[in-house]
Amino acid sequence: MAEHRRARIIGYGIFAAVLAVIVSALALGGNHGSNESAGGAGSTSTAGSHNAPSRTSTFGVGAGAPAVPVPAATAAPSGATGVQGSTQEGLTVQTAADAVTATRVVKTGRLDLRVSRGQVQSTVTKLVSLTTSLGGYVSQSSTETIAGEPAGQLTLRIPVASFDNAVIAAEKLGHVESLTTNAHDVTGKVVDLGARITALRQTRATYLTILGRARTIGATLEVQQRVEDVQSQIDELQGELNVLRNQSADGTLTVSVDQPTLIAPRHQVHHKGGIGKAWHDSVSRFARGFDAIVGALGPLLLVVLVLAVLAGIATLGYRGVRRATS
């Protein structure tokens, strides 16, 4: 019995040892497989970055001189848009542009106000004060008098964040004849211009490096021309970018102010009645009748007058002749 119990204990021990070995092998195999997967993924990423095809072009710096490689990111055509270069460089530039470029909206509007008579100049002054209080400024102001009626027109530049409040406040200064407002999002264009300027600056830096290695006058002049062309493109794009930034920083509100036109009172005709009306009608009819008679007999009276003058002349002549003969 004792021997049987001892054999059973030994069997249990052997079974437990074998089970422990199997569990350990499985655990070690799982960790090893995980390490291999992680290592494989890392290897794939590294291989992808190191084995990616590199696009380069060459630019000669003179006869007999070795060609200098120019990265494709900087040798791209000037009209290309977006971020050029390798994927990693493109992501870096785009992320930086997104980080520094907030939403940019160009806001414009036109407001026509009609105020009480004599309030044009005071309303113009209130509009100027309103613009200044909101952190803006008046870019253009004019007042004129047309047919004795004063009128004013202002161009207000107001920070975009306060543009809507400025329109609401300006509406309260008079009767609104008309109001139009527009908003245009230019964020994408600002980002695109910034990316193109960055790419062109990289191109310029590369050409300047090549210019320092040029050994002949021809090569120097050719590279210098390339540098000037790229700089001209940078200046043009920078000008467009500055305009967009300025327009999106301050909205433009054009306000015209006028007053109602004074209408002259009409002359009222007082109609007479009774005896006064009868007398007036009689005199008026007599005058019209006399005018009609004169108008009708005028030519006849003229003929009679001419004949009388001729007859008088003839009579005088005849008497003179008789005196002379007698």
Give the termini separation: 216 Å
Number of helices: 7
* Helix and strand pattern: HEEHEHEEHEHHEH
Tell how many strands the DSSP assignment holds. Answer: 7
Weakly predicted, low-confidence segments: 28-100
Structural class category: alpha+beta
Average pLDDT level: 73
Sheet with the most strands: spatial strand order:
4-5-7-3-6
Number of domains: 2
Spatial shape: elongated
Residue fraction in strands: 15-25%
* Largest sheet, strands/sense/barrel: 5 strands, mixed
- Percent in helix: 55-70%
Rg over CA atoms: 51 Å
Brief summary:
By secondary structure, the chain is of the alpha+beta class.
What report would you give on this structure?
It is elongated, with a radius of gyration of 51 Å. It has helices at 2-50, 87-100, 120-133, 163-171, 187-213, 217-249, 274-325, and strands spanning 56-59, 68-71, 105-114, 137-146, 149-159, 175-185, 250-258. Helix 5 (187-213) packs antiparallel against helix 6. The strands form 2 sheets. The protein has a 5-stranded mixed β-sheet. A two-stranded antiparallel ribbon has the order 1-2. The protein has 2 domains: 1-52; 74-262, no CATH class. The protein is built from 7 helices and 7 strands; from the N terminus they run αββαβαββαβααβα. Strand 4 and strand 5 (149-159) form a beta hairpin. With 326 residues, the protein is an alpha+beta fold. The protein is 61% helix and 18% strand.
